[in-house]
Design the sequence.
């Protein structure tokens, strides 16, 4: 998949296009991307995604923006896995926020991306003050010669699949519900970096995963599996949160203690799959009390893994 920053002034080819944030690439997104790639194959044109960075709500309400389910890098990996040929990452800034719906159609869809067929979600609005809607796109399609289709809402167990629903499930510690909406266990990927070595001092060395610009969608202590270090996944215990016993800086971090792995893994890019919540994060009266709790967490996680087979479905990217 080719990735472009910004929109070209003139498209080099006609495209089959969809537009959205695609945070988490959940089952609803996956169904939309299947429509996109199937149509692109029929027409012999590239399947193209237009997405935004940052998320529009991060621009308009930065202190109240929702937690991201995936970083931009993770999202691009999942779009690639879904068969997308090109992704255009459009910077959401004051200029874009002020662009009229008609200018978005003329400059972005028609001239910049050469849209031949467009798929959108059933709640898609665009342009300054969200003035553009499905009816406006249909009218533009008749004028400029491109088709427009709306993807109906996808439901799982009588629940509408959405990024918001996934966030709610993760915040509640309901990993099964989140996995049913995503079509796979929730995961976070990142590079292992050097930390403050507190886990090593306590006798439980951890892999510290970089989470750049991420306000985590979940916190607490979890049984996890890790891929990227060996041909098979490795079981572990992850803490994601602010580590109130060890530090007071309030910065969220993801740390994983691997149950059956003793080799160094600094610099490795790994993916952590969250499988079962063990407990909420809390502050302990001392590092000795924390050490005892980590040992208990590791024992409980090992028991959980002994009773539960690793999921057979491999997650996307």
Sequence:
């Amino acid at each position: 998949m080719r990735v472009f920053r910004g929109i070209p002034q003139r498209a080099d080819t006609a495209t089959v296009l969809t537009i959205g944030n695609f945070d988490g690439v959940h089952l609803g997104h996956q169904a939309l991307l299947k429509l996109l790639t199937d149509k692109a194959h029929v027409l012999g044109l590239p399947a193209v995604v237009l997405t935004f960075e940052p998320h529009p709500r991060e621009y308009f309400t930065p202190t109240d923006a929702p937690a991201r389910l995936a970083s931009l890098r993770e999202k691009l990996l999942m779009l690639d896995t879904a068969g997308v040929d090109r992704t255009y990452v459009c910077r959401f800034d004051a200029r874009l926020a002020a662009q009229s719906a008609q200018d978005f159609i003329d400059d972005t869809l028609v001239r910049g991306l050469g849209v031949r067929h467009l798929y959108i979600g059933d709640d898609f609005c665009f342009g300054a003050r969200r003035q553009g809607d499905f009816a406006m796109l249909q009218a533009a399609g008749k004028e400029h010669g491109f088709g427009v289709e709306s993807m109906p809402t996808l439901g799982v167990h009588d629940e509408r699949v959405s990024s918001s629903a996934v966030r709610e499930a993760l915040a509640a510690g309901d990993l099964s519900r989140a996995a049913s909406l995503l079509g796979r266990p929730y995961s976070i990927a990142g590079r292992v970096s050097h930390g403050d070595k507190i886990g090593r001092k306590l006798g439980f060395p951890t892999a510290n995963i970089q989470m750049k610009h991420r306000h985590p969608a979940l916190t607490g202590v979890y049984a996890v599996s890790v891929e990227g270090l060996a041909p098979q996944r490795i079981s572990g215990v992850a803490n994601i949160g602010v580590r109130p016993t060890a530090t007071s800086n309030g910065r969220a971090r993801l740390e994983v203690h691997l149950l059956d792995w003793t080799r160094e893994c600094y610099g490795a890019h790994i993916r952590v799959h969250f499988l079962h919540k063990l407990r909420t994060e809390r502050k302990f009266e001392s590092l000795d009390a924390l050490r005892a709790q980590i040992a208990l967490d590791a024992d409980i996680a090992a028991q959980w893994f002994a009773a539960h087979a690793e999921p057979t479905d491999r997650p996307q990217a």
